Amino acid sequence: MTLDKMRGMVIGGLFGVVLLLASTGCALISSQPAPPSATQMPEAEPVTPSNPSATATPVPPTATVEPELAARANGEPIYAADYQAELERYEASLRARDIDPSSQEGQEKLAQAREQLLDVMIEQVLIEQAAQKAGVEVTVAEVDQYMQDMAAEAGGEEAFRAKLEAWGETYEGAKQEVRAQLIGMAMTERVVSDVPQSTEQVHARHILVDTVEEARSLHAQLEAGADFVALARAHSQDTSTRENGGDLGYFPRGILVASEVEEAAFSLQPGQFSDVVSSTLGYHIVQVVERDPDRSISPENVQLLREKAVQEWIRGLWAQAEVDRFVETAP
Q1: Quick one: how many helices (H) and strands (E) in the chain?
Q2: pLDDT, tens digit, for every residue of 174-193?
Q3: Domain range for residue 204?
Q4: Given strand 247-251, what is the order of strands in its sheet?
Q5: Contact 140, 180 (CB under 8 A)
Q6: Residues 185 and 221 reside in one and the same domain
Q7: I need a labelling partner for 291 at 20 to 30 A (CA). Which of 51, 93, 136, 308 fits?
């Protein structure tokens, strides 16, 4: 994965997303450089009185200036200077893509990035905290190897560093981003490892209509012996399944957008059809064709289940976190 792609994943959306899976899963994350240590004020020179008998002026204790914060995640600081640096790097990335940050398009992207970047920085802290608890580590050698691979993909070390400079990124900053990506990938692998390759599945079909009155009318026709497939082809508003008589194929739990339809399908036996089921999509009637207690999950559905597992894990991190924000991100 090139740094361009990594940065694109960050700005393109989160768990929003997304970011989301490689062969075993890749979380959309990004990283900020390590927080700087507190800036120390120079120690005051000792005051030597001109009159030895005079009382020396007390020297105030060394003062420590606390860096300004952009946010705090579970007590861990995210510094405003790091957040501003990320914004500046994003501006540089826009210029590298021939987008003028002062143009309407550039301003729109910057407005979106202000909130997303802070979310990404907070999320990365939450992920690293979870990794520490889980004992997940990324070695220096792993980061160095990844950097070497990206340099080779970019055409060599010199070309790679030139590209980083064009993005407004330093080599060390890029290493921090790579480390964050590798931690995110390692944690994602742990999360998706629980997704099964086979499980109970149902083969179902459905009819979707806009009004409850039409759904009840169709339900009455089914009770009178009408053919489900024929009614679906004639009346269903689901254009993706209508021509196939409403056929949804085999699916495990956790796949369908309308969870109500899924719940209804898993409650039925082959040949049975449901009552009218309401969802955000409209009104459904569901019929189960077959059931299989242990069927291999298709690659597409395995991918969807992995993405869902990662999204739920990320939502859990946010739900349990104590997050404070100190910068205005709204346009």
Answers
A1: 10, 9
A2: 998 899 999 999 999 999 99
A3: 198-296
A4: 247-251, 198-209, 282-296, 277-279
A5: no
A6: no
A7: 308
